[in-house]
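Q: Could you fold this chain for me?
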Amino acid sequence: MASLKEIKGRINSVKSTQKITSAMKMVSSAKLRVAQNRIENFLPYQQHLTSIMSNFLSSETDYISPLSIKREVNAVAIVVISSNSSLCGAFNSNIIKLLNQTIKDYPHIPKEKIYIYPIGKKVEDTIKKNGGIVQGSFIQLMDKPKFDDAKNIADNLIADFLSKKIDKVELLYNHFKNTASQVSTREQFLPIELTSQQNTKTISTDYIVEPDKITILEALIPKSLRIKLYAGILDSAAAEQAARTVAMQIATENANEILSDLTIQYNKQRQQAITSELLDIIGGSEALK
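A: Sure. Below is the predicted structure, expressed as C-alpha cells.
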C-alpha cells in the first residue's frame, strides 16, 4: 500500500499535468477558431470557381482535358496530410492507417513507383521509419499554410501526370466535420472527373468569355486543382486543432477523476494513520494503570 508521502506526490504530479492539459486546450481552441475562419472564408471562393467551371462544361460536352485522361496505373503519387506535433488523439494514426491501406490497394506497383508527398512531420517520420521514399519535405506547410507552397506541389503533380511519370494522384487528409468529429478522407486528385451540373437544379449563367470557353477551361482546371490541394491543407489544419482540443479536454477530465480518487485514498490513509496513533496512545495509557 502506498504511503501518504507517495500519494501526496502523485496528487501534485496530476495537478501539474492538469494545468498543462488545460492550458493546451485553451491554446488549441484559439487556434481552432483561426483555422475554422480560414477554411470557411476560403470555401465560398472554391465553390464559386467550381460552379463557373461546371457551367462551362455543360456547354462544352465534347471537351476532353489532358488532365482527365484515364490510363493504366503503373505509377501513383499519394499526397498525405498529417500534423507536425502529437497530443491530438487518433488524428495522425488514422491518416497513417489510411495511407497504408491506400498503398495496399496497389499491390502490382513496385515500391519505387509509389511517390509519396508527406505534408506534416508525423507522417513524414513514419514513412522514413518504415523505409519509404518521400518526395521532399513540406513540414512548414502545416505550421503556416500558404497557397504558393500548395501551388508548387500541385504544379509538380500536374507536370508529372502530363509527362506520364505518374498515372494517378490520390489525396489523403482529415476532413473537419465538427469539433468532435474528423473524418479520414481519400479523394482522387488526378485524373480529374469532368462532370457538369446539368442534372442539378441550379441556375446556369450565360458568361461572356474571351477568347473562348476552351481556353478558359484550360486555365480553370489547373487552378481548381491548386485550390483543391490548398483547401485540403486548410481543412486538415482545422481538423488537427479540433482533435487536439477534444484530446486535451478528455485528458483534463481524466485528471479530475484521478485527483478525486487519490484524494479519497489520501484521506483514508491519513484517517487510518490517526486512528492507529490514537490506539497506540490509549493502549499505552491503559498499560500504565
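A (continued): The beta strands are 76-81, 114-119, 168-178, 181-190.
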